[in-house]
Design a protein that fits this description.
- The chain is 22% helix and 49% strand.
- By secondary structure, it is α+β, with helices and mostly antiparallel strands.
- The chain has a single domain, classed as Ribosomal protein S6/Translation elongation factor EF1B (Alpha-Beta Plaits), CATH 3.30.70.60.
- The protein has a 4-stranded antiparallel beta sheet, with helices on one face.
- The termini are close together.
């Protein structure tokens, strides 16, 4: 088959969270079956920003985007993780 892109919206616990450090911590927990493509900040409202995290994974091999979501959700400072889009490349 091919590769799939997984786009997630990561909400920090508060506006006080250092998004640069949070992005670095997220990079460290991406499972070995996936690779990080990009992390971008996205303004939400009233100074709150989300991180948009895009990873690339092989669409065969028995792994799921849910595994990436679960790993990212365990990072300190992460309030929530939502998989927004999964698509073949």
């Amino acid at each position: 088959m091919g590769d799939a892109a997984v786009k997630m919206k990561v909400m920090p616990e508060s506006t006080e969270i250092d998004l640069t450090k949070l992005a670095e911590d997220i990079k460290k927990v991406i499972p070995s079956f996936a690779r990080l493509h990009v992390i971008q900040e996205m303004p939400i409202a009233f100074g709150l920003k989300a991180l948009i995290v895009v990873t690339i994974m092989n669409d065969k091999g028995g792994h799921s985007p849910d595994e990436i979501e679960a790993a990212v959700s365990k990072v300190a400072g992460v309030e929530s993780v939502e998989v927004e889009e999964v698509g073949l490349l």
